[in-house]
From TrEMBL:
Entry keywords, A to Z: Membrane, Transmembrane, Transmembrane helix
Protein name in the entry: ATP synthase protein I
Top-rank taxon, per record: Bacteria
Pfam family, one: ATPase_gene1
InterPro entries in UniProt: ATPase_put (IPR032820)
Spans through the membrane: 7-28, 40-58
Organism, scientific name: Sorangium cellulosum So0157-2
Skewed-composition ranges (Basic and acidic residues): 83-105, 112-124
Length: 124
């Protein structure tokens, strides 16, 4: 339970960090514009610097979340799947000789019970 609140605290501040990055960039640009008389160019430039810093903060938080999820999965014995199950079934079907499919093809219908019955062709 303590870990859940720790995650809420660390990831819940990302929005605040994004807003602050953008506002700080904008205010630095406006201050420089007032000092140098270059309105509105430096304000726009520093606004985009703030957007870049906000994007970097979001990317950092995303990487931390991915690392935490992977660590939790390892610790709890629930590893992420290493391959796509649909490809494995297509490989098994190709190896058993069912159908005219290549071994690397992927079945577009994920479950066997959802397949449509094969249409019978009228041979004349």
């Amino acid at each position: 339970m303590k870990q859940d609140w720790k995650a809420v605290g660390s990831y819940g501040t990302v929005g605040l960090e994004v807003v602050l990055c953008i506002l700080v960039g904008l205010f630095i640009g406006r201050w420089l514009d007032a000092k140098l008389g270059t309105e509105p160019y430096l304000a726009v430039l520093w606004f985009f610097f703030g957007l870049g810093a906000a994007g970097k903060a979001v990317h950092r938080a995303w990487r931390e979340m991915q690392a935490a999820a992977a660590r939790e999965e390892r610790e709890q014995g629930n590893p992420a799947p290493m391959f796509d199950d649909r490809k494995a079934r297509a490989d098994e079907r190709a190896a058993s000789g069912h159908g005219n499919r290549r071994a690397d093809s992927i079945d577009v219908v994920p479950y066997p019970d959802e397949r449509q019955p094969a249409k019978e062709h009228d041979e004349r």
